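User: Can you fold this complex?
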Amino acid sequence: MNTALRDGAAIPEIGFGTSPLKGEDAIRAVGSAIEAGYRLIDTAVNYENESEVGEAIRRSEVERAEFVVQSKIPGRDHAYDRAVASVRGSLSRLGLDQLDVGLIHWPNPSVDLYADAWRALVDLQRDGLVRVIGVSNFHPHHLARIVDVTGVVPAINQVEMHPYFPQFALRAEHERLGIITEAWSPLGKGMNAYGEAPVRDAAAAHGVSPAQAILRWHVQLGSVPLPKSENPQRQRENLDVYGFTLTDDELAAITGLARADGRRFGGDPDTHEEM
Ligand code: A2P
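Assistant: Here's the predicted assembly.
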């Protein structure tokens, strides 16, 4: 199943997250993920595994055209020329002629050049080096600024999202602008969302695992989760969320795990630096 993007392209409804896989582990895990059926593969310059992702793709028997490979420009490369060079570097490490999705990894407040990086992505898309352009970890005010500077709305914003942190306000803004939400740490594993009663109850009611219930919650909310797993069986399990539908009550109960204190466990885009 695919999610349509504002510029006419489409991406799979579920992708494979590759952080923090490295070296042979990364080649093995991406390889088994491809065998399991993942076609959207998420990497970043700063994950230091682009070569391994490229290697796993080349070793597979799947046609290049079937893959949606996405990578991200780090903060140290936000100046226009450096952003262009950064994407060229990603292409060379991945062994690809075109990046399917190019994202800005974080806004990086101390650098304050993300609008320049965005201008570079707009031009790279025009020149055919990047097919779909977007951002990651952007607040609404960051989105407003790049749209202001270029008139171009990103197709994707990849952010922390899971049942503890459902991103209500940001997703409403995405809906208004026509931006697809991708979810990193979709399982909220760091805070044990699996063990929560609404997740366990929904999973038991449909005869699925807690992870499948959470991933189905994402799909029904329209966000594209990027679960990471090194385990082939869990990789398959995480794609197998199409045999059941959560009820409105189950969706609401899982969303009800959102905490008033804002249980983000990653960085806040207004302060976090990803150089
Ligand atoms: P593993 O690689 O051993 O499968 P998130 O994507 O929310 O950051 O969570 C990633 C973590 O969740 C990884 O530690 C991964 O471990 C674990 N994980 C991924 N899929 C599942 C699953 N279906 N059931 C249990 N744990 C999972």
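Residues 191 and 228 are 16 Å apart (CA to CA). The chain has one domain: 2-188+223-229.
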